[in-house]
Amino acid sequence: MSLAVFFKGILLIIAGLSHNYGLTPKDIKTVYHGQFFETMVLIWAVATRIVAMTLSTFHVIVMVALDFPQHISPAIFETLCPYPSTSIDTLRDLTTTFVLGVFVMVLASLLRGWCFHTLGRLFTYRVAVTSNHILVTSGPYAYVRHPSYTGVFMMLASAAFTYLLSHGNYIGERGIGFTPWKWLIYYWVICVAYSVISLRKRGASRRRVDESDVRRRVAEIQGKGPV
Q: Where are the transmembrane segments (predicted)?
């Protein structure tokens, strides 16, 4: 196995795991209300995690098959690459775009993990203020108003660079556009575009809710009078 294939395989697995980690908060609530995006976000999160990890895994398998054709069944290669392009060998290339995509993916997942840890039980996909809600100003929230959304934007952009735009990506080289699996990729792209639009609206909603909660708490304190 060449050194480039080894390192690219490691980076692909890291990208897939980082993508999963960044979209998997701990102890997430299962009741959602409000915007349509909020009711569909779990389905989208699960689907995009499966797509990213599947693309990483299949890409690694095909690279190994190209390097060791005598040890990999031709049936496996034909299944994973039914319509290979004439530049199929570029799957093994390490490009700047690919490395940059993986690097940003890791940073985004770490930022999201930092948000999960900082918010703890307060993290939810639903824009709401609970009875025990507090205004968090520590961790990444000391520097950015919505660091979790920033992390999602970074993950979406890095996933596009890693899996769609980098030279020698699995989607382009395996001929997926000639298979029924193309609809899964179309679904993924549509979900990403919809998420970008919805997150911008969600950020505005979250800001209005937070500001309303702060005003309410200030009014409560003022109503109590001097201590």
A: 42-66, 94-111, 151-171, 183-199
**What mean pLDDT value characterizes the chain?**
77
**Number of other residues whose CB lies within 10 A of the CB of residue 68:** 11
pTM listed for this prediction: 0.76
Of residues 138, 147, 101, the one with CA closest to residue 118: 138
Contacts of 168 (CB under 8 A, 6+ apart): 87, 90, 91, 92, 93, 95, 98
* Residue showing tokens 């709401």: 128
Give the integer Cα–Cα distance in Å for 133 and 35. Answer: 20
Q: What phi and psi, each to the nearest 5 degrees, are found at residue 94?
A: -95, 110
| pLDDT tens digits, one per residue of 114-151 | 988 887 776 665 555 555 556 677 788 888 777 888 89
Can you tell me whether residue 10 is helix, strand or coil? helix
| pLDDT higher than threshold 60 for residue 34 | no
Cα separation of 225 and 141, whole Å?
31
Minimum mean pLDDT among 26-30, 97-101, 144-148, 184-188: which range? 26-30
Bin 27: left if φ > 0, else alpha if -120 < ψ < 50, else beta: left
Per-residue burial over 47-58, b if 16 or more Cβ lie within 10 Å, else e, is ebbebbbebbbb
Distances in Å between the Cα of 71 and the Cα atoms of 10, 13, 61 are 20, 21, 12
